[in-house]
Amino acid sequence: MELKEIIEQKLNHKKILVEIPSKPGQIPVISAIGDSLAEAWENSMLALYYFGVELRTEYDRKGQDGNFIDPPSRDCSMRMVIEDPLGEPMVHRAFPGGLEDLEEYRLEVVEGIKDCWIRNPLDPLDKRWEYTYHERLFSYKANGKVYDQIDQVAEQLAKVPHTRRAQAITWQVWQDPGIEHPPCLQSLWFRLLPFKKNHYLLNMNVRFRSRDAYDAAFMNCFALIFLMKKVAELIEQKARIIQKNPKFKVGLGRYVDESDSYHIYGHRLEDFKNRFLKQVLNRSFEERTWRLEFAQAVFDEARPKILEKIKKINNN
Q1: N or C: which end of the chain has fewer CB within 10 A?
Q2: Contacts for 151 with CB less than 8 Å, ≥ 6 apart
Q3: How many domains are contained in the chain?
Q4: What is the rounded CA–CA span in Å between residue 271 and residue 44?
Q5: Residues 33, 83: contact at Cβ < 8 Å?
Q6: The domain that contains 130 carries what CATH number?
Q7: What is the residue range of 192's domain?
């Protein structure tokens, strides 16, 4: 099947929605929907490539003559909707990186294994990282205090399941506009909806200001889904105590992921065509995805090695 046919099919089945098409002076607004993470991310990449606008970035390389070496990026504003965040198949084989990399990133975001790599802001010679997402979400520092926003979110929802105030942010307005790599992830918003008696589903909205759709988005979503799962478990634990209801249960509802700028860098377009598009055009969906059960075996084997690697780096 040709790419045009695939796109038309997804448009007809409302798996891709072009809300505002590309036109002079406007970034297109696109929605991509999938039952699982693998399907939603694949649809988002196809939609971006097919309907995105060409835009220059601050990272495009230039030659000695001042002309651009890299082609322009492909860009849009993207809303990705995953109806079942833990639905199968969950893992797309075409994301750049290996399963070990995916597990390392999950541990970084959910467990904070790289928080120790954050620089001392009072030491101008310290060139380590300025932050991690885990640090901003679990140890947000402001006004001389440290806030565990994830614990606060869980506490809010355990007390008032229908609250609209349960969110966590990363942006620090007093410093982030001027740092070298300001956070792309901006906020997580959570809300519980009743599903059955004593059973709620946690819905989560994620917002990114800027997103490397090809090299980062899949791993971002994968890790954040497991963070969502962690929040659901924490709400359940707290609610059973606060509401004195041992039957209180929290599962996962839909995941909505919004990016102001969702892009493929120009210098990565050839790799995208050779790795991603070739799989979509030449393999069945089952052949270009993995079930979590398969990946989990790799994760379990890789985890001790990852932790040992981090330990060695910390000791150097």
Answers
A1: C
A2: 138, 234
A3: 1
A4: 17
A5: yes
A6: 3.30.572.10
A7: 3-315
Q: Which residues touch 219 (CB under 8 Å, ≥6 apart)?
A: 95, 97, 101, 102, 105
pLDDT (tens, 9 = 90+) of the chain, 316 residues, equals: 899 999 999 999 999 999 999 999 999 999 999 999 999 999 999 999 999 999 999 899 999 999 999 999 999 999 999 999 999 999 999 999 999 999 999 999 999 999 999 988 878 888 889 999 999 999 999 999 999 999 999 999 999 999 999 999 999 999 999 998 999 999 999 999 999 999 999 999 999 999 999 999 999 999 999 999 999 999 999 999 999 999 999 999 999 999 999 999 999 999 999 999 999 999 999 999 999 999 999 999 999 999 999 999 888 7
Q: Report residue 251 as tokens.
A: 């599962």
